[in-house]
Amino acid sequence: MSVESVSAQGFARESLAVLQKVVESSRDDVAAAAELVAACVRSDGVVQAFGTGHSQALVLELAGRAGGLVPTNRLSIADLVLYGGEDPSVLDDPLLERRAGVAARLYDLAAPRPEDLFVVISNSGVNSVIVEMALHAKEHGHRVLALTSLAHTRAVPAAHPSGRKLADIADVVLDNAAPRGDSLLELPGGGSVCALSTLTGVMLVQMTVAEAAGRLLAAGERPPVYVSANVPGGFEGNLELEKKYAGRIRRTAS
Fold first, then answer.
1. CA distance 136 to 129
2. What is the rounded CA–CA span in Å between residue 200 and residue 62?
3. What's the rounded Cα separation, in Å, for the pair 249 and 251?
4. In Å, what is the CA distance from 170 to each residue of 15, 72, 105, 118, 208?
5. Cβ–Cβ < 8 Å for 144, 78
6. In terms of CB atoms within 10 Å, which of 92, 147, 161, 232 comes out highest?
7. At residue 54, what are phi and psi to the nearest 5 degrees?
């Protein structure tokens, strides 16, 4: 890649090409993912979304946003403090994501029902807490949808003691097509710049939501969807929709 390619237009050109590839290559996987989501909604389940690091951006894209499905819940390591009574200092541990038992604790705090779907998001797909969450969900009978980079996960060793990776565990895998290390534009002399996984991840999340909503509509069911709280009546209308899932979905200020 030339120096001239490391530019705003270079990133736009390269990332749009990958986005188009994702749209074309993921049709079957998105359809399968959408069926998991639609089945969850039909059975009065909640979509439990979990990720760490920058993958939390995609959790927020799925859970509790305008235009998104109401029965969605964001799981976060911060739940240990917010809902589990842990001292905030626990979050200072840089190795917390590698600690055994963290995912099981987060699962218990969420108190999911059997009909809930777990969406586990990780670009690498090897982080210990990510793999543990997917395994724990499967052990409790949940379906698991993964959003990950197959290129990255295939290029790095497993970190979890089981020797398994997120893609090995999930019922359906959405590949974000990000390269190993995530950065898209190669730098002269080595290294790269500009992460891609959030852009492609958002596309896959919204394609899945759209397809799931379409399937519900085709079956004569109206999908429970959030309206922006910043339009008249939006906040109040959303509160009414949330009543059906009281105690099962968390909506905090952050």
1. 10
2. 14
3. 7
4. 26, 19, 20, 9, 16
5. no
6. 147
7. -75, -10
CA gap 194, 75 in Å, rounded: 27
| Amino acid type, 185 | L
Question: Between β-strands 192-195 and 183-186, what pairing exists: parallel, antiparallel or unpaired?
Answer: antiparallel
Q: Among 223, 184, 170, 182, which Cα is nearest to 39's?
A: 223
- C-beta of residue 192 within 8 angstroms of C-beta of residue 185: yes
Residues 6+ apart with CB under 8 A from 236: none
R_g of the chain, CA atoms, integer Å: 19
pLDDT along the chain (254 residues), means of 10: 80 96 97 98 98 95 96 96 93 88 95 97 95 97 98 94 95 97 93 96 98 98 95 94 95 77
Could you give the CA distance from residue 192 to residue 105 in angstroms, rounded to a whole number? 37
Q: Are 29 and 14 in contact (CB under 8 A)?
A: no
